[in-house]
Amino acid sequence: MKKETLLLLAKKYTDGTCTPEEKMAVEAFFDKMQDGSTISLHQFPDAKGDIILGKIFHELQTKKQPGNFRFKKVLKIAAILIVAFAVSFSVVKFVLTPKEIIQIAHKGEKKEVLLEDGSVVVLNSNSSITYPEEFGETRNIKLSGEAYFKVFRDVKRPFIVQTHDVKVRVLGTSFDINSYKHRSTKVSVLTGRVEISSASGKKVVIVKNQQADLKRNADFHISTDDSSEGIAWTSNTIILKNTSLSETAKIIENWYNVDITFEDQEIKKFTISGKFKDEKLENVLESIAFLKQLKIIYLTQNHIVIRRKTPKD
Length: 313
Prior knowledge:
Elements: H1 3-15, H2 20-34, H3 47-62, H4 69-96, E1 100-105, E2 111-114, E3 120-123, E4 127-132, E5 139-150, E6 159-162, E7 166-170, E8 174-179, E9 186-191, E10 193-198, E11 203-207, E12 210-214, E13 220-224, E14 237-244, H5 245-256, E15 259-262, E16 271-277, H6 281-292, E17 294-298, E18 303-308
Parallel strand pairs: 5-6, 15-18
Antiparallel strand pairs: 1-4, 2-3, 3-5, 4-5, 5-8, 6-7, 7-10, 8-9, 9-12, 10-11, 12-13, 14-16, 17-18
Helix pairs in contact: 1-3, 1-4, 3-4
C-alpha cells in the first residue's frame, strides 16, 4: 500500500467514512505491520499528511469511543503514520546529503585542491581528503596522510579537519597536518591560530611557528620552530632533523613510490639530519648510506634493502 493511499484511508477510517471493503483493507494492513511485514513507502511526507496525523492525535485525546477497540485501532494508525514519516524523513536526509568528494595524491605525486569556499589544500604523497561538494554551517574535511591548508576566513563557518586521532578547528589560517597512519598527528601553524583536540578530550591552541605533536599518552607536546620548514615538501624539499631512519624510510617510500626493507631492525633507530631538494632517489639513498655506513641493495627497481656495511663492502 502506498503511503498516499495509507494517509487517505487513515483519514477515512478515523472519520468513520470507510466502505466495508476499505475498512477491511486498513485493518489487514495494520495486521501485516504487526506481523513484521515489509511495507514500501515511496513518497515524501507533505503538509496534508501532517494535518491528518494531527487529527489522529486530536481524536486520541478528545474522543471517547465505546469500548477499547476503536481507540486501539486509532493508536495503531498513529503508530504506523509515525513510522511512515520517520522513514520518509530518513530518505529525505539521505537524498539531500551533499555528495562527498575524495581527492587522492598517490605515492610519488603531490596534488593541489581548490575547495568551493576558496580554501586551498596541498596534498603530500600517499594522502587523501574527503569533503562534501558543498559546505554547510561548518566546513568539514577528513584527512589521511599529510596536507598543507590555506583556509579562507569565514567566521560564520568554522573549518574543521578530522584525522585518525585529532580534530583541528580554525576560522582562517594556514597550517600543516602530518597524520600518516604509522605516526601520531603533528600540526604546524604558519599563520593565525588553531585549536586541536584529541579523542580523550584534551585541547590545545597553537599560533604561528608553534607545533603540537600528539603523544602516546594522548597528551600534546608543544614546540616552537620555523613552521615553514614543515611545508618544505610543497617545494619538493625533504628536511630531516634528527629523524629516525624508520621515519625517513616512510618519507622516501611515499615520495618515490618504493618499498624499503631493513635487514637489521636496529638500523631503524639511527637518526639523520639533512636537506634534499629535487634530488633523485639514488642520491638521497647514497647520502644516507655514506653518513651511516650502510649498504643500499636494489632487489628490484621499487624494492630496496638497507643493511649494515660489512668488511667485504
